[in-house]
Amino acid sequence: MDALLLSRLQFAFTIAFHIIFPSFTIGLASYLAVLEGLWLITRNAAFKTLYLFWLKVFAISFGMGVVTGVVMSYELGSNWSAFSAAAAPVIGPLLAFEVLTAFFMEASFLGIMLFGWKKVGPGLHFVATCLVAVGTLISAFWIVSANSWMQHPTGFGHTTSGGLIATDWWAVIFSPTFPTRFAHMVLAAYLTTALVVGAASAWRLLRDSEEPEARIALRMAIGMLAIVAPLQLVAGDLSGKLLDRVQPAKLAAIEGFWETKARQDFHIVAWPDRAIAANRWELSVPGVGSLITTGQVDAVVKGLRDFKPQDRPPAFLVFWAFRVMVGLGVAMIGLGAWGVWLIARNRLDGARLFQMACIAMGPAGFVSVICGWIVAEVGRQPYVIYGVLRTADAVSPVGAGQVSASLLGFLTVYAIIFSVGVLYILRLIAEGPAAGADEPAPPIQRAPGSALAAAPGDAP
Amino acid sequence: MRDIIEPPPEPGAPLPPLWKRLLWFVGLAVLGTLATAAVAYVLKALLPPH
Known about the structure:
In chain A, about 70% of the residues lie in helices and about 5% in strands. Chain A is mainly alpha-helical and about 450 residues long. In chain A, helix 2 (about 45-80) packs antiparallel against helix 15 (about 400-430) and helix 6 packs antiparallel against helix 7. By secondary structure, chain B is mainly α. Chain B is built from 1 helix and no strands. Chain B has one helix at about 20-45. The chains are: A mainly alpha (about 450), B mainly alpha (about 50). The interface of A and B includes residues 43, 52, 56 and 111 of A.
């Protein structure tokens, strides 16, 4: 393997690990704000218990997100220096704004969330929680803005030395695909969190169907799923419909289209093969592919054969990543509808099959997010900045041995960090919100001079 | 972790005066910013000079 492929593997590996954490913490921060707000309004202790429980998970996930994110900044310099040299005047400020406006905000007010409830009082603590939640959304704004520019670059020019320079910052920040992609990412984060909260609550209810915190949290997760999952379908569809105009090769790879024609078939499943420039086999619905991808039955949609072989993205991976993402999205809609139906019939707490389904769907948000990013990033190939800079021209002049060594290091370190972090989070979730939520019990009062007067309070 | 995270004040417990709470709010936020900035400068120092 050459340095280019190894560098791509390394970035894919590190970013796939990283995206797990922000996609969870974006939703979790908003969930914490809702929990604290509800506790302030109702003074129901269950909301406080849930808040304190999910705050622990948030703090660990936030820390792991930071650690795995910092690595990628270094990779831009070490493995993708040609990209950084060319695109830094455009991309650099967007990433800097993310750090200055979002990360600093989150990191600053997280301290108050963790250590300052009694010191600042409930009102100001709630303000801090809301600011952290807003900070996560601002963070998503800048990262998706930078990535959207790489997907469809606008508002830039070329310098005499071959670099890129921004000529219109509004066009750079708000490139045409940005609004729908931002909505798609934020909704994905909310869904990811709802699924994890739902799975954790269902796990607790399977053990104790009367646990008040788990009952409340499962209902909140179902409400979020029922509202957000269908919205996500709409956001994804709007985002996808732009592809026909801005990234037709990616659209053709997603749908397994090889020939340019009107009334494309919709391939439910297929085996796209770049080697023969066709699908080896396919199961299709005739004539509706154009309608689904563009909204018009007779629209002519480009096929991959319209692009030179060296300009085609890897169709198999993009095609199947998209189908896994959409399949799980449909399952999320189904889970939300099933949960609402059970709530309406007042049968949720005893519905063991539904609770087991919730547990099974717990990781679905993470899988969908990673698949979605595979569609976005692999579908953009062979470009790193679509139509402007090829991935092969963006890599650093480093040897395969150097990249292999760092990749091996990442695999080892991440395996340890990830295993430890996730195992700890899973242990916390298994213990549940009620564990340790109460203040320590006061010492047992025994009569002076009695036989057990000197024994510790928790002695048998 | 259980001991580090500060729970809310007990219901009915008297709150510190507003100026003290605001001071804690600003102080903890600034401390968080400074801690983040310190880590950022350490990471920057690890980069080789141009």
